Amino acid sequence: xxxxxxxxxxxxxxxxxxxxxxxxxxxxxxxxxxxxxxxxxxxxxxxxxxxxxxxxxxxxxxxxxxxxxxxxxxxxxxxxxxxxxxxxxxxxxxxxxxxxxxxxxxxxxxxxxxxxxxxxxxxxxxxxxxxxxxxxxxxxxxxxxxxxxxxxxxxxxxxxxxxxxxxxxxxxxxxxxxxxxxxxxxxxxxxxxxxxxxxxxxxxxxxxxxxxxxxxxxxxxxxxxxxxxxxxxxxxxxxxxxxxxxxxxxxxxxxxxxxxxxxxxxxxxxxxxxxxxxxxxxxxxxxxxxxxxxxxxxxxxxxxxxxxxxxxxxxxxxxxxxxxxxxxxxxxxxxxxxxxxxxxxxxxxxxxxxxxxxxxxxxxxxxxxxxxxxxxxxxxxxxxxxxxxxxxxxxxxxxxxxxxxxxxxxxxxxxxxxxxxxxxxxxxxxxxxxxxxxxxxxxxxxxxxxxxxxxxxxxxxxxxxxxxxxxxxxxxxxxxxxxxxxxxxxxxxxxxxxxxxxxxxx
Length: 506
Known about the structure:
This protein has 15 helices and 22 strands. The chain is an alpha/beta fold. Mean pLDDT is 93; it is low at 1-17 and 499-506.
């Protein structure tokens, strides 16, 4: 009788099965974002039995969404669409110079844009579910936590438990925005990017606290005619080339976005008018200041979504400082059959395409007899601010730190897009630079571009830089006339040595 006591405990029963018996699935993916879905679908292509377990914990403000992860629901996709809305507003103003008779001023309706964007995102949610079904991947809309290294307990919204066992488990739960809970009123009255894209009504006068990718949000809010202010503690776009970051913020200021630099918020209070009064300290002047806003959006970093995973039980190690999961070159954690990909992993770029590629390659290594590892070097990316900033490779600061200032050469140029001429738009911040090794071959270490369609421009050059392109090779490349990308092939016009900006590290 004593030997059978464990049979009365379903969770423990599953744990014993998980450790000793045949596993139900060949692969279980915990997290239904870009990386996790890519991994699951790729594994299914090899005829393996695959399951995906995904659950979205509503934001503190109650916002929730469907399958697809951050990028689809509260990241890249809605962000780019709202950025496009702002670009269209600029195009309408330019149109007069090109002969279009458009009544001024033009007005933007948030609810129309938001509904269209949200409808598209919901179609993507549905599309992901259909794709999993078509590929015979089992989908559990449940919150997962480890019972043992081979067993995950899934919990539905209603509290129902399901025990799932698998030979291989991939953790791909990504991250969620942080709230500065030490600031009075921050949690009660503020929103994050988890909420902004799902607002039914206009956020009105908005304070964005933080100056990284949140600049994209402040930029499109300004572009659609709202009063937007960015509060930044220190530098903008940390981790990016700081000369380029300065040009991005300069353009945003000329575009109409306000900046509160060297400022730290101390409290948020709700007024009788329902507006939010924010108090902050100006660290440069040593003063305390206040202003009222309709919306306060926190963009002070993201935290890995590991809280409910019970990683300790599985033996999965994390970085104690960041909370992210430590992985090796093959995406394996400290437990050989448990892997992690995407934003939740330590030292990886927090970018959708890298998570997708890493997920697919992992599935091929597990089930397709491949040995190819993910290469995280020279990954291109773009910041979709009003004047876009695209880059690939090292920033100038990182190049100096890695190779020394005497060993790099920087070629750079300001330029004016042809599109800006007739419309008489300011091109003061349209700029590009190439960071090269100074040795005879002059291998390109980094390429940085600020201007229209920066992502499209950088994507093309990223292939060459990935293949080890050199400055002389680029100079032999014929540009497509008359495009902004063509200007990159003219960078021999001006060159400079050394570092103009302050070195802030990689």
